[in-house]
C-alpha cells in the first residue's frame, strides 16, 4: 500500500464522524500535524459554531449551520475583511464541505461522506503540492474526450459524404441523450451496451443500421421495420425528439469500439453541465474562449450568489420555524426566470437550475420538519430557464443537460413530469443570434423577476469580424446618433447594453463574466455612461481574478464579474476583491468605490506634472539604421558622425537593442546632402512620403531629412515605454542622454526632474494606469492622455520632492550594480534583484506617505484614495 493510499484510508475512516470537532482533529492527524500543535490550538474552548479556528498559514476551519456554504463564504468575506494568511479555508456543515485553496485559487465542494476521495486537495498541509495525474481524470473528462474523439473519427471516416458534418450533429446529440437516458433506465433499462455488442458486427459495418432502429423505436416501437430484439428492450417511446430520421452512413471497428467504451462508462456519475462544455471544447476548438469555457459551480456562484441566491438563503435562514414565510420563499423562487442570452452548452443555466432546486428541496425539508407536510405545488421548473445560443450542437446539449439535471434532482420524488421526454423539443433554449432577438419576446419580463446571467462572447474591437462590427453598430445605433464612439468597444459590450435596456425600470438584474477590458481604458467613458443612462447601476462586482477552464488543461484567463440592477430599487452594493467583500455606497465602472469616470486629458496633467509627449515619428524607414549600416557609412564617410544619433522605442529601451537614425537640422542639410549615401536615403524618404495615401505625409516630403517631430532634450530624456508586461510590478522607465532620440513607440518627458521619474516608477502610478488605461492582450497599454495626464497626486512640498529624488537615486544605483542586464531582465518578476526590489519598496512607501500618512494596506484603498483625489482635482 502506498503512502497516499494509506492516507486515503485514514481519511475515509473519519468521514462518518458526526462531531465536527472530532472530524477536524481527525483531519489534522491524518495530514501529520504534530500533536503538540493540535494541543496548542485549545480546540475544546475555541470551537464554536461560525467561529474560525486553525493553524496560521496552513488551515482555517469554520463549522456552520448554514444550509449553503457558498453563501456563508461570502458573508465571511464581509465579517473578517480577510487578513488571515491561511493557505486553505475549509467550511463545513453537517452534510457538506467547501474548501478554497488561496494560492491555486481552486475550489472543492464535496459531501462529508465523499471527502476522502479528494485527499490530494489538502496535501499542501504536508508541504506537498497536488499533481494532476492522467489516470485520475474524472468521469466527466474521460467521457468528454471519448465523445469528442468519436465525433472526429466519424467525421474523418465519412468525409466523402455530402453534408456529413450537418448530419453528424443531430446523430451525436441523440446518442448523447441515449447514453444519459439509458444509465437512468428511462428508455432501455441499461441495455444499450448489450444491444451493440450482440447485434452488430465487430467491423462496425452494420452499426449505423442498428442505431437507426433504436432511434426509430424510441419514436414508435410498433414500427414494423424495427426488429423485436430492439423493441423488446425499449421501455419508453413516442419521444418527439426522434421523430425525424437521421442516419450516419459509416462506422468501422475503431468507432464501434469507441461507442462501446462510452457505453461502459458510468453515465449516472456524469454532470451534464461539465460534459457539454468538455465535448464542445474538444470537438470544436475553434469555439474555445471566454464565452465557451466551462465555468465551475464556485465561479457560477460568484455570479448568481450576489445577484439573487444569497438573498434567498438569507430569507430562508430568517424564515426557519415559520411555515408561512417558508412558503413565501417557495412562491418567490418559482416566479424567478433565469435567462442566458449566450448560453453555450447551458453551463450557467444548468448550475443555476440545480442550485434553485437544492434551495427548494431544503425549504421543503424544513417545512416537513416543522409542519409535518409540504405543499408540493411550488416546484422549480425547467420552463423558468431561457437561453439563446448560435451553435446548434451546443443548443441541443443545453436542452439535454437541463432535462437530465432535472431528472437527477427529482429521482427520489419521481413526479410524472420528469418522464415527459417531449419537453426536449419545446423548451425555452433557442438557436439563433442573441443580438437579433427582442429579448423580451424570448423571455417575457411581465411576470416575475428575471435574472440575466452568463459569459457573453468576447472579441476585442481590433479583432472583430465584419459581421461582428455590423452587429455592434446595429446594437448601439441609437447611441451612435448621440455621438457615442464605438471604435474601441468590445463585442461583449452588446450584451451589457441590451441587458441594461431589458432590466431598466424593473426589479430584475443581470450579471456577466467578461474580460476586464470593459472596465478599463477608453471603453469606460464610452460604454458605461450609456448603460447608466438606462437607469441602471452596478450592484456588485468581482475584480479581476483567474478564471480556470475545467476542461483538459485547466487554463486560466483574467476576468471580472459585473452585476447591475435598476437604480429605482435600493440594493446593497458590494465589491469582492481577493476574497474580501467591501460594502460601498456606489461602484464605478473601474470596479472601485465611487462613481468616477476618467476622461482623456489631451492638454495637460491635472496634477501640474511636466508635459509627456509621444516620441518622434520617423515616417520613413530610410531614416533608421542598424549598427552595421551605421558602421558602413562611418567607414567611408567619417564626417557623417554629426548626423547620426542613437534611437530608442519601447523595445530598444527595455531590451537594450542598438539602433541608429539620421538626425539632421535644417542648417546642416547641405552638408548632409554632400554625403551620397545620406542624400540617397533622404530622396527615398521623400518618394515614399509622396506615394503615401496620407495627405499629411505629402507635406512632410518637403523636409524628408527629418522625422515628423524633432523634439530633443537639453540634458536628458525620461523614457516611458508605451507597452509593458502585466506581470511586471513596475514600469521600466529611465533616462537617456540628449544624444539619444526617442521614437513615437515610447513616451518622453524632456529634462524631467528625478522626482517625476519616481512618481511614474511607483506602485501607485502602475495601479492607476492598469485601472484606467487597459491592456493589450497580456500587456499594459500606456497612455499619456489617459494614464499620465489624469494621474492624481497631492501637492508635494519641497521636502517631499527631495525625499522622492533620493529614492530614485537609490533605484538607479541598484540598476547600475547589474549594468550588464537589460531592463527586461532586471524587472522580470521571477528574477528581480533583491536590492532593486527593496529600493522600489522604499520609493513606494515614500510616495504613498505623500498621499496618506502611514500608507495603504490594499490596492483597493490605494484606488479609493486616488479616485477621490481625482474628483477633487477635477472639481467634481
From TrEMBL:
UniProt entry keywords in alphabetical sequence: Methyltransferase, Transferase
MmeI-like target recognition domain sequence ranges:
595-795
The catalytic activity of this protein is classed by the Enzyme Commission as 2.1.1.72
Q: Report the catalytic activity.
A: a 2'-deoxyadenosine in DNA + S-adenosyl-L-methionine = an N(6)-methyl-2'-deoxyadenosine in DNA + S-adenosyl-L-homocysteine + H(+)
Pfam families per UniProt: MmeI_C, MmeI_hel, MmeI_Mtase, MmeI_N, MmeI_TRD
Identify the Gene3D superfamilies for this entry.
Vaccinia Virus protein VP39 (3.40.50.150)
Question: MmeI-like C-terminal domain spans which residues?
Answer: 799-874
GO MF annotations in UniProt? site-specific DNA-methyltransferase (adenine-specific) activity
Q: Name one GO biological process term.
A: methylation
Record-annotated MmeI-like DNA-methyltransferase domain positions: 316-575
Q: Which residues form the MmeI-like N-terminal domain?
A: 59-155
Tell me the ranges covered by the MmeI-like helicase spacer domain, including all copies: 167-223
What protein is this chain from? site-specific DNA-methyltransferase (adenine-specific)
Lineage per the UniProt record = Bacteria, Bacillati, Bacillota, Clostridia, Peptostreptococcales
Amino acid at each position: 500500500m502506498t503512502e497516499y493510499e494509506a492516507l486515503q484510508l485514514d481519511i475515509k475512516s473519519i468521514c462518518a464522524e458526526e462531531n465536527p470537532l472530532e472530524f477536524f482533529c481527525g483531519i489534522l492527524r491524518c495530514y501529520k500535524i504534530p500533536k503538540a500543535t493540535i494541543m496548542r490550538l485549545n480546540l475544546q474552548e475555541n470551537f464554536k459554531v461560525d467561529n474560525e479556528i486553525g493553524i496560521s498559514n496552513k488551515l482555517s476551519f469554520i463549522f456552520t449551520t448554514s444550509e449553503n456554504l457558498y453563501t456563508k463564504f461570502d458573508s465571511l468575506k464581509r465579517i473578517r475583511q480577510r487578513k488571515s494568511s491561511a493557505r486553505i479555508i475549509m467550511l463545513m456543515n453537517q452534510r457538506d464541505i467547501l474548501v478554497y485553496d488561496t494560492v491555486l485559487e481552486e475550489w472543492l465542494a464535496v459531501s462529508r461522506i465523499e471527502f476522502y476521495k479528494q485527499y490530494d486537495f489538502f496535501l499542501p498541509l504536508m508541504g506537498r503540492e497536488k499533481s494532476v495525474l492522467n489516470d485520475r481524470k474524472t468521469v466527466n473528462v474521460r467521457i468528454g474526450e471519448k465523445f469528442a474523439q468519436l465525433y472526429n473519427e466519424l467525421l474523418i471516416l465519412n468525409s466523402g459524404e455530402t453534408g456529413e458534418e450537418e448530419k453528424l450533429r443531430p446523430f451525436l446529440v441523440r446518442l448523447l441523450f441515449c447514453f444519459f437516458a439509458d444509465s437512468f433506465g428511462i428508455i432501455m433499462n441499461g441495455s444499450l451496451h448489450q444491444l451493440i455488442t450482440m447485434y452488430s458486427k465487430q467491423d462496425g459495418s452494420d452499426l449505423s443500421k442498428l442505431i437507426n432502429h433504436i432511434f426509430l423505436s424510441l419514436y414508435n416501437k410498433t414500427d414494423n421495420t424495427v426488429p423485436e430484439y430492439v423493441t423488446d428492450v425499449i421501455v419508453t417511446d413516442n419521444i418527439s425528439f426522434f421523430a425525424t430520421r437521421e442516419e450516419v452512413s459509416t462506422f468501422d471497428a475503431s468507432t464501434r469500439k469507441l461507442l462501446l467504451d462510452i457505453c461502459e462508462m458510468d453515465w449516472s456519475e456524469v454532470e451534464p453541465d461539465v460534459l457539454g462544455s468538455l465535448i464542445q471544447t474538444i470537438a470544436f476548438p475553434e469555439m474555445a474562449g471566454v464565452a465557451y469555457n466551462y465555468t465551475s459551480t464556485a465561479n457560477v456562484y460568484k455570479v448568481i450568489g450576489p445577484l439573487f441566491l444569497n438573498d434567498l438563503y438569507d430569507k430562508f435562514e430568517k424564515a426557519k420555524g415559520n411555515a408561512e414565510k417558508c412558503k413565501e420563499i417557495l412562491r418567490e423562487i418559482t416566479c424567478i426566470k433565469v435567462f442566458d442570452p449566450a448560453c453555450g452548452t447551458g453551463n450557467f443555466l444548468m448550475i443555476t437550475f440545480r442550485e434553485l432546486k437544492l434551495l427548494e428541496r431544503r425549504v421543503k425539508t424544513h417545512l416537513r420538519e416543522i409542519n409535518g407536510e409540504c405543499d408540493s405545488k411550488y416546484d422549480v421548473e425547467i420552463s423558468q430557464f431561457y437561453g439563446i445560443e448560435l451553435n446548434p450542437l451546443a443548443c441541443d446539449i443545453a436542452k439535454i443537460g437541463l432535462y437530465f439535471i432535472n431528472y437527477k434532482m427529482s429521482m427520489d420524488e419521481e413526479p410524472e413530469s420528469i418522464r415527459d421526454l417531449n419537453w426536449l423539443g419545446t423548451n425555452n433554449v433557442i438557436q439563433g443570434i442573441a443580438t437579433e432577438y427582442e429579448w423580451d419576446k424570448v423571455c417575457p419580463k411581465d411576470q416575475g423577476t428575471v435574472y440575466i446571467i452568463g459569459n457573453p462572447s468576447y472579441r476585442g474591437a481590433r479583432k472583430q469580424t465584419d459581421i461582428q462590427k455590423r452587429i455592434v453598430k446595429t446594437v448601439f445605433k441609437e447611441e451612435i446618433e448621440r455621438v457615442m464612439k464605438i471604435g474601441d468597444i468590445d463585442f461583449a459590450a452588446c450584451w451589457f447594453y441590451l441587458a441594461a435596456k431589458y432590466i431598466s425600470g424593473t426589479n430584475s438584474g443581470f450579471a456577466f463574466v467578461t474580460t476586464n477590458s470593459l472596465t478599463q481604458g477608453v471603453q469606460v467613458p464610452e460604454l458605461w455612461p450609456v448603460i447608466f443612462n438606462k437607469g441602471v447601476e452596478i450592484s456588485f462586482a468581482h475584480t479581476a481574478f483567474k478564471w480556470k477552464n475545467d476542461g483538459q488543461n485547466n487554463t486560466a484567463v483574467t476576468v471580472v464579474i459585473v452585476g447591475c440592477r435598476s437604480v429605482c430599487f435600493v440594493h446593497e452594493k458590494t465589491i469582492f476583491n481577493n476574497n474580501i467583500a467591501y460594502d460601498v455606497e456606489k461602484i464605478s465602472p473601474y470596479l472601485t468605490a465611487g462613481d468616477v469616470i476618467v476622461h482623456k486629458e489631451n492638454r495637460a496633467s491635472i496634477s501640474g506634472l511636466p508635459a509627456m509627449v509621444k516620441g518622434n515619428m520617423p515616417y520613413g524607414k530610410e531614416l533608421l539604421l542598424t549598427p552595421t549600416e551605421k558602421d558602413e557609412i562611418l567607414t567611408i564617410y567619417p564626417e557623417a558622425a554629426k548626423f547620426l544619433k542613437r534611437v530608442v522605442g519601447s523595445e530598444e529601451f527595455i531590451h537594450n537593442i542598438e539602433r541608429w537614425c539620421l538626425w539632421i537640422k535644417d542648417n546642416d542639410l547641405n552638408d548632409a546632402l554632400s554625403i551620397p549615401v545620406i542624400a540617397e536615403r533622404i530622396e527615398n524618404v521623400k518618394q515614399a512620403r509622396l506615394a503615401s495615401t496620407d495627405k499629411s505625409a505629402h507635406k512632410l516630403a518637403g523636409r524628408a531629412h527629418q522625422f515628423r517631430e524633432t523634439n530633443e532634450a537639453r540634458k536628458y530624456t525620461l523614457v516611458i515605454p508605451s507597452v509593458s508586461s502585466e506581470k511586471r510590478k513596475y514600469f521600466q522607465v529611465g533616462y537617456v542622454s540628449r544624444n539619444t532620440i526617442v521614437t513615437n513607440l515610447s513616451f518622453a518627458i524632456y529634462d524631467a526632474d528625478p522626482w517625476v521619474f519616481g512618481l511614474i516608477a511607483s506602485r501607485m502610478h502602475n495601479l492607476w494606469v492598469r485601472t484606467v488605461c487597459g491592456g493589450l492582450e497580456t500587456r499594459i497599454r500606456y497612455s499619456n492622455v489617459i494614464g499620465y495626464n489624469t494621474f492624481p497626486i497631492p501637492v508635494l512640498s519641497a521636502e517631499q520632492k527631495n525625499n522622492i529624488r533620493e529614492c530614485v537615486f537609490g533605484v538607479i544605483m541598484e540598476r547600475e550594480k547589474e549594468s550588464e542586464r537589460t531592463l527586461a531582465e532586471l524587472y522580470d518578476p521571477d528574477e528581480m534583484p533583491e536590492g532593486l526590489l527593496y529600493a522600489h519598496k522604499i520609493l513606494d512607501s515614500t510616495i504613498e506617505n505623500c498621499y496618506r500618512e502611514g500608507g495603504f494596506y490594499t490596492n483597493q484603498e490605494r484606488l479609493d484614495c486616488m479616485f477621490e483625489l481625482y474628483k477633487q482635482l477635477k472639481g467634481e
